[in-house]
Amino acid sequence: MPEQASTIAQQVDALFYYWLGITLFFTVLIVAAIILFVVKYRRRAPGEIPRPIFGSMKLETIWIVIPFLIAMSLFVWGAKVYFAQYRIPKDALDIYVVGKQWMWKMQHPTGQREINELHVPMGRKIRLTMTTEDVIHSFYIPDFRVKMDVVPGRYTQMWFEATKPGRYHLFCAEYCGMNHSRMTGTVIVMRPDEYQAWLSGNTSQLSPAQQGEQLFQTLGCTTCHLNGGRDAGGRGPQLAGIFGKPVQLEGGQTVVADENYLRESILNPSAKIVAGYSAIMPTYQGQVSEEQLLQLIAYIKSLSPQSGNAAMTSANAAQAASSPNGQRR
């Protein structure tokens, strides 16, 4: 088995070994019973007529109740591990990932970019927001026991917290074309002080939120999305504080303004019209890349007080990485 290098790895392995143990136990039991019955109840003479065997309520109850209890234990245990693995912590450090044949492109909240390498601090929860420029990929780190499909046209998220410094393999676990086997990388887990030094030596780039703000202005979004919305003369809804909040749509529906909603609103603005506004926003399909979409979303997230992660400066990120308890100060 790969090394257990994350907080979830031990839970996943324990469930796997439990499932494997049950499978082996019943495989041996059933094969042994077959051999026993073949020998014990074999026909000993050509004209032998077996004695009729009547059902046993006790036996039938046992082989219904015991498998049911085992199945329920697997369900409950599996659900517990599933929710622990796929409930994204709110205090996680955001890193954006774009898959492309055949590489992984990462961008940190302080602007650092990496290809096929991901530097993360030990003991800090990391949230990956992922998409792809072409086909389906799958982001897989065996030592962390985490894997998530990366799907065109939407965002998927996964999280982990590394517990041991070192270098760990990163794979694409979804066949994505001719050079699929070469779509590999390395996750480099560093101690907090080492990660702080790495951040300090790579601060020449703007953060995704800062890049998104520039793009927001370049595309002319500021002419419609004004602070105060319609009350301030804006032709589009106010974006400050919108992320993570419910949005009322035409027709009475309500949606939560998450990453996928913001992405759809940029690429297909007429799909969900905010109540009280007209469908006048043009589509930016084909005008912005996947990385630019992530930057725009990072900027919009930074306008919401509860999404301070998206707008962290280099100093704040370094300070968060070096904090003893792994939380932002």
From TrEMBL:
Catalysed reactions listed for this entry: 4 Fe(II)-[cytochrome c] + O2 + 8 H(+)(in) = 4 Fe(III)-[cytochrome c] + 2 H2O + 4 H(+)(out)
Record's subcellular location: Cell membrane; Membrane
Annotated keywords: Copper, Electron transport, Heme, Iron, Membrane, Metal-binding, Oxidoreductase, Respiratory chain, Translocase, Transmembrane, Transmembrane helix, Transport
Name of the protein described by the UniProt record: Cytochrome c oxidase subunit 2
Function, as annotated: Subunits I and II form the functional core of the enzyme complex. Electrons originating in cytochrome c are transferred via heme a and Cu(A) to the binuclear center formed by heme a3 and Cu(B).
UniProt domain Cytochrome oxidase subunit II transmembrane region profile: residue ranges: 1-89
Organism: Pyrinomonas methylaliphatogenes
Family membership noted in the UniProt record: Belongs to the cytochrome c oxidase subunit 2 family.
Catalytic EC class: translocase
Keyword field contains Membrane: yes
Domain Cytochrome c as annotated: residue spans: 207-304
Topology in membrane: Multi-pass membrane protein
Cofactor binding comment, as recorded: Binds a copper A center.
GO MF term set: copper ion binding; cytochrome-c oxidase activity; heme binding; oxidoreductase activity
Keyword Flavoprotein part of the UniProt annotation: no
NCBIfam families membership: CoxB
Record-listed E.C. numbers: 7.1.1.9
